[in-house]
Amino acid sequence: MKRIYDKDILFDWGQKADLQSVFSSTAIDFFGCLYEKGEFLSQPCEEAEYLQIVVSGTISIYHIREDGTRYSLAQGQGPFLLGDMEFYQPSPSLFFVEALMDTMTLAISLKKYREILKNDTRFLNYLVRNLSRKLISIACLESDNVSLKHRILNHLKYHCENGILIGMEKHAFLLRCSSRRCYVF
Q1: Three-state SS for 157?
Q2: pLDDT tens digits, the chain, 185 residues: what are they?
Q3: Which domain of life is it from (predicted)?
Q4: In the chain, what are the domains?
């Protein structure tokens, strides 16, 4: 991970992430982080020190079960908020967050700005929207669905522009199957 402090770069990243719609307070200092593909943005047992907003790139959030299998919780692209679950209750992270490609984030110190953010209505609304999206995603992963055929047809109808599936790996993750199984369908 490489930290970025250049004000011009941070301004550009802030524009990409639409920060003016996320924070009311202008008294918050950010720094940038550049992660290479395969680097971890967060790992279990590390205390979450920062809120991070993914500006560009793709991340994977997952957990390793006791039997050693990987349980995927979400994939996200910018803008995507990390550290939201640890915002009110400082605690170690429960999940791995890995960069699936080179990823840029804006980071905010939780220790320094937690109280300011607790009083920032715009930020709290943003936080609720992000947590709601994550809960919906997890609920969909956990629900017993119909056959793969029906899941694919539903996905094509409601989530693919013009009913065309582009980017097999991403869609296979959302359908909870391997990309090979999507091709077979």
Answers
A1: helix
A2: 999 999 999 999 999 888 888 898 888 899 999 999 999 998 887 877 889 999 999 898 888 877 777 777 767 776 788 888 778 777 777 788 999 999 999 999 988 998 999 999 999 999 998 888 777 766 665 554 567 777 777 777 767 777 777 777 777 777 767 766 655 55
A3: Bacteria
A4: 2-142 (2.60.120.10), 148-184 (no CATH)
**Residue type at 98 in one-letter notation:** E
Amino acid at 130: N
Q: Is-above-0.90 flag for pTM? A: no
